[in-house]
Amino acid sequence: LVTASKLQALDLSSTKITEKALASIEKIASLRLLELRRLRLPDRAIRHLAAQRPDLRIIHDTGVFEPKKP
Fold first, then answer.
1. In the prediction, which pLDDT does 1 show?
2. Is there a smaller number of Cβ atoms within 10 Å at the N or the C end of the chain?
3. Residue 1 in contact with residue 27, Cβ under 8 Å?
4. How far apart are CA 10 and CA 2, in angstroms?
5. For the chain, what is the radius of gyration of the CA atoms?
6. pTM to 2 decimal places
7. What are φ and ψ of residue 8, in 5° steps?
8. Positive or negative torsion for Cα 27, 19, 32, 65
């Protein structure tokens, strides 16, 4: 997935994604929307992703992380 240079949106809801895989997804620079509902990932992993990618809109069961304006 890291080589998916034109990927802008990805829905991984209800999947068995791991924290390690989430770290790989973090590297997809073109990604602007990521849906992560109904997962068994710790909240800290989602917060870490949001901190690493402030340009990414993340929809999660605990809330929506909106992109930070420059």
1. 55
2. C
3. no
4. 12
5. 11
6. 0.88
7. -110, -25
8. negative
| Cα distances (angstroms) measured from residue 65 to each of 15, 20, 33, 50 | 20, 20, 10, 7
Q: Are 47 and 69 in contact (CB under 8 A)?
A: no
**pLDDT, tens digit (0-9, with 9 covering 90-100), for 4-60:** 678 999 999 999 999 999 999 999 999 999 999 999 999 999 999 999 999 999 999
Residue with tokens 């080589």: 3
User: What is the three-state SS of the chain?
Assistant: CCCCCCCCEEECCCCCCCHHHHHHHCCCCCCCEEEECCCCCCHHHHHHHHHHCCCCEEEECCEEECCCCC
Distance of alpha carbon 38 from alpha carbon 16, whole angstroms: 10
